Amino acid sequence: MDKIEFDQIFLPVIFKLSQTADREKFDEIASAYDITILNLFQSQKGELFKIRSPQKRLNAADCQRLFEDWIKDKVPDEEGVWVYYPWAKRILHILDKDEFVEVRTSRNKHKITTGEQNSLFNKKIGVVGLSVGNAVALTLATERICGHIKLADFDTLELSNMNRIKTGLHNIGINKAIITAREIAEIDPFIKVECYLDGITEQNISGFLTENGNLDLLVEECDELDIKLLCRNEAKKLGIPVVMETSDKGMLDVERFDLEPDRPIFHGLIGNIDPSKLKNLTNEEKVPLIIRIVDAKNSSLRGKVSLLEVGQSIGTWPQLASAVTLGAGVTTDVVRRILLNQFHDSGRYYVDSEGLISNKNVNDNPTFNNPFAPFDLNTAKETASRFNDHPVTYIPDVATVEHLVKAACQAPSTGNDQPWKWLYQNGKLFLFHDEHRAYSFGNFDNIASNLSFGAAFENLVLKSNEAGLFIKKNLFPLGSSSPLVAIIEFSQTEQAGFEKVFSPESVRVIYERTTNRNPSQAVEIPESELELLTEAAQSIEGAELLMIQDKEQMRQVAEIIGGCDRIRLLNEDGHKDFVFREMKWTKEEAEKSADGIDVQTLGMSPAQLAAMSLIRDHKIARVLKEIDGGNALIDVSRKLIESASALGIITLPKYSAENFFKGGVSLERLWLKAELLGYAVHPLISPFYLFPRVLHGQNSGVDEGESAKLLDLRQKFIKLVPLEDDMAEVFLFKIAKAEKPAIKSLRLPLHDTFFAGDMTNK
Predict the structure, then answer these.
(1) CA separation for the pair 321, 451 (Å, rounded)
(2) Which one of 8, 366, 432, 572 has the fewest CB atoms closer than 10 angstroms to its CB?
(3) How far apart are CA 459 and CA 379, in angstroms?
């Protein structure tokens, strides 16, 4: 017998030595030097005497006496049967089938009545997928709730399978169905076992379900989505119930196609998908489907984390022996009751030991502490009144100023937080920093807010120019730490100190400018257009625009951006910021708040959106951080930038609040120019919001590990980009061609941001 043939043997050979042919074959095998022979017949017969006379409480001597009386006129070798296990080179002398089954199932009584047990002996069950299915099949066989099992798996055992498959190392390399069949035979050689060593295919599914009579029930435990659907579609046609256990949170699916012929597969969770379209999917492509099938929001915490890490830090879906063992028990219990017509429902059920046996009264919900009081209009008016000693020369009417401020509020802001409040009082327009609204992890040192104020001011200049007005500003009149950002005056004539207007035509696209995260094309930007973009960004004194177009350099910057995104999202405060403040997870939520970012505008693939829905849970983010996971975020960044025409960076020479305000003006001029030229701009700003925490903030808001990672990313960044640590790093963005977003971020109602105060013009 060669190795291949040996590896496929799974059926025991049963000899009845009262039959001549059997005796001759048995003698030939038993004479081999390496055969082990165990005679278990007498001990099993003794057990039979005991279970048939439970009232007598027979001891060992009683059993010995009864056996001697029984055997005295018989040929001992010809009683019972001899079972040869070729793969183990072992022969056992055991009871005949009926007596063997009677003894082996005696401890089932009366959990299972004799009538029920006899009914179950005639049942035929199929098990597809013999990793989890191994435990299920062995438990079905051990409880002996069927007389015939069909096993299907194409895969062979590897060492990594042995965290949950209880078998010996000597079985590595052997087909899992063969291993399971052998172990069933060693538990009970009278159970009929068939093996499908190619697994389930379109060609053999019919035979698996119907040959020698239809299966009474199918247990499906395979990994391949197309085979899962194929099994269900075919079982549904034949009215065969399907049971699946997932080894996560004790989740068990029951689909009673025998009682509900029109029941949708997987409870209707994935609609009518053609199984052929599920072949050869990548892990990323499988994720959204798996999330739908398992209804991932109800998965265990570690299950969700694992789903996010498949293809990153792990190769496939993990399973624990404890969960597999529990699942096998639950599955067998449910299968038995289905076969006995005691349980009739379909559905999804959880036997969640972690939920049932857990610490009580633990509140682990995130808390929010905003150190700033909400914007107070009276306090703002009082602050503004301190500047009444300098009457203005021209006072536009409120409606005009309101019109201008509305355009200013179209400026970009981090997370669309719209950190501004505008007070028009005594002919002056006061721009206040709403620190309560702007308080966020992303707004370190008010960098983000000051950029937004600068961008809003540029819109104000453009819109005023369109209205025939000139404006000038007094920036940070009470210092950059004061909520009062600027005082703006108007004039009908151009005077010294009033703002010069750059690119008046840009006013046309103030309301069209938007963050464009749609799938893009990496078109080449003509030199003439590059010059226009550079001119716009550098129209502010000291501003510099660096455009990166080298693909390898862009790829390396993408990894740094992704690394920063990952640090931000896995940081406790960064995660709260992102999930509860910045992201709007439904259209209704976005419309109600009129701020933040509608998740549908992120331009993410279904897989990425599905992953995002899981990472909302702060506990998942915490575990991802603990295991140093979440690297899929770097992949997101990498793929995003693969379709970029260029990456752009705007800087000013010194790190200061005023320069970030000026940087805001610069970025808005560039962005509006890009809009006029038909380019899509996508800010990728996380490095510029995080690096200052380690360069200027003594690691503020980041722990030691995050700080070390940021410093490492910073070193990689400055090797690629010639920046000095004391610069104001203003804007990092992707530019490309893309379709206009169908959904634009909303703005707060103007009555929430613009207020008209005293107009006595003292």
Answers:
(1) 54
(2) 366
(3) 26
What confidence tier does 762 reach under pLDDT thresholds 50, 70, 90?
Answer: very low
Where are any strands of DSSP class E within 507-652?
520-521, 544-548, 583-584, 597-598, 646-652
Judged on CB neighbours under 10 Å (0-12, 13-18, 19+), 238 is middle
pLDDT in tens, 78-94: 999 999 999 999 999 99
36, 86 Cβ separation under 8 angstroms: no
As a whole number of angstroms, the distance between CA 6 and CA 16 comes to 24
Measured CA to CA, the distance from residue 166 to residue 186 in angstroms comes to: 14
Contacts of 398 (CB under 8 A, 6+ apart): 424, 756, 759
Best mean pLDDT range from 140-149, 280-289, 602-611: 140-149
**Measured distance CA(317)–CA(132) in Å, rounded:** 12
The token pair at 483 is 């909520």
Tell me: the pLDDT tens digits for 494-542?
Answer: 888 899 999 999 999 999 999 998 889 999 999 999 999 999 999 999 9
Find residue 521's DSSP bridge partners.
737
Residue 759: pLDDT band with limits 50, 70, 90: low
Instruction: Give the predicted TM-score (pTM) of the model.
Output: 0.83
Per the CB < 8 A criterion, the answer to whether 124 and 146 are in contact is yes
From residue 161, give the alpha-carbon distance in Å to each of 135, 169, 178, 374: 12, 11, 15, 57
